[in-house]
């Protein structure tokens, strides 16, 4: 069995998801030049590095990450479930990640609260004895993240992200009259530690950030039974195939670039 883990080379539906991830990089690259450009000085602006009044507390002047933030990254999970083995021989599942958040001032310096949405989409495939096996996994979740600001442009936090996970699997067996497939939704929860650092000056109009996140994603186990995609009258021509129990619960690491405004 082999797994195609060569970046943007997965076949069929995985290639479309990979191209979508690549296209998503372009806005970050294009906005990099804008992020490095300092904003024009205006009368009454506070010098960078000073503290400013926000809510009921005093906070570092450069909390651009407290506003709107859009992040694009790569999430890697290590799934040790037996049901994942037909689709991979290294237990690793790579997913593209999109996260959009809005920071809120809770009036308790140096703390802030971030709310948002996240989307993860990944693909894994393998071939054994001439049978192609493919697995696609998408996840949408709500983000709740208290942050502690260590310094202007540098924070750490704790993230809780409950959501829904969609999994689809297929086997392309030449001896079968139709592709064997299954798909289902399950609830899921991520719990993780986060950290972020601003890469460009505080005077820039748009903030450029490097983000890191590590934690554990949980979802319930499901029996992976694949049935032929045939009309009801022909379903008896090919039986279902069971690949055992699949649980996508796993530790994960996510590295992202983000823009804030």
SSE topology:
Elements: E1 2-3, H1 13-36, E2 51-54, E3 57-60, E4 68-78, E5 92-104, E6 111-128, E7 131-151, E8 154-172, E9 180-198, E10 207-218, E11 222-228, E12 241-246, E13 250-260
Antiparallel strand pairs: 1-6, 2-3, 4-5, 4-13, 5-6, 6-7, 7-8, 8-9, 9-10, 9-11, 10-13, 11-12
Provide an overview of this structure.
- Helices cover 9% and strands 56% of the residues.
- It has 261 residues and is mainly beta.
- It has a single domain (9-36, 69-231, 241-260), classed as Porin (Beta Barrel), CATH 2.40.160.20.
- An 8-stranded antiparallel beta barrel has the order 4-5-6-7-8-9-10-13. Strands 2-3 form a two-stranded antiparallel ribbon.
- A hairpin with a 7-residue loop joins strand 8 (154-172) and strand 9 (180-198).
- The termini are far apart.
- The model is unreliable at 1-23, 25-31 and 33-62 (pLDDT under 50).
Number of contiguous helices: 1
The description of the largest β-sheet is: 8 strands, antiparallel, barrel
Number of domains: 1
Q: Helix-strand pattern, N to C?
A: EHEEEEEEEEEEEE
- Described by the principal axes of the CA atoms, the overall outline is elongated
Task: Please state roughly what percent of the residues sit in beta strands, choosing from under 5%, 5-15%, 15-25%, 25-35%, 35-45% or over 45%.
Answer: over 45%
CATH class: Mainly Beta
Distance between the amino and carboxyl termini: 46 Å
């Amino acid at each position: 069995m082999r797994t195609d883990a060569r970046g943007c080379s997965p076949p069929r539906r995985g290639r479309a998801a990979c191209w979508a991830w690549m296209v998503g990089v372009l806005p970050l690259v294009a906005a990099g030049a804008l992020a490095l450009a300092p904003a024009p000085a205006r009368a009454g602006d506070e010098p960078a590095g000073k503290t400013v009044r926000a809510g009921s507390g005093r906070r570092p002047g450069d909390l651009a990450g407290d506003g709107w933030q859009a992040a694009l990254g790569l999430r890697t999970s290590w799934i040790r479930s037996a049901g994942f083995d037909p689709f991979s021989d290294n237990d690793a599942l790579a997913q593209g990640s999109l996260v959009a958040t809005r920071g809120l001032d809770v009036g308790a310096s140096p703390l802030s609260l971030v709310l948002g949405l996240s989307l993860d989409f990944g693909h894994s495939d393998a071939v054994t004895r001439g049978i192609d096996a493919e697995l696609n996994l998408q996840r949408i979740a709500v983000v709740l993240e208290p942050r502690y600001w260590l310094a202007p442009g540098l924070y750490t936090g704790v993230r809780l992200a409950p959501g829904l996970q969609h999994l689809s699997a297929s086997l392309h067996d030449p001896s079968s009259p139709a592709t064997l497939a299954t798909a289902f939704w399950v609830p899921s929860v991520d719990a993780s530690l986060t950290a972020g650092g601003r890469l460009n000056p505080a005077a820039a109009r748009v903030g450029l950030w490097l983000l890191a996140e590590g934690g554990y994603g949980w979802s319930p186990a499901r029996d992976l039974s694949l049935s032929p995609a045939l009309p009801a009258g022909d379903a008896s021509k090919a039986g279902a195939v069971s690949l055992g129990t699949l649980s996508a619960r796993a530790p994960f690491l996510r590295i992202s670039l983000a823009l804030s405004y």
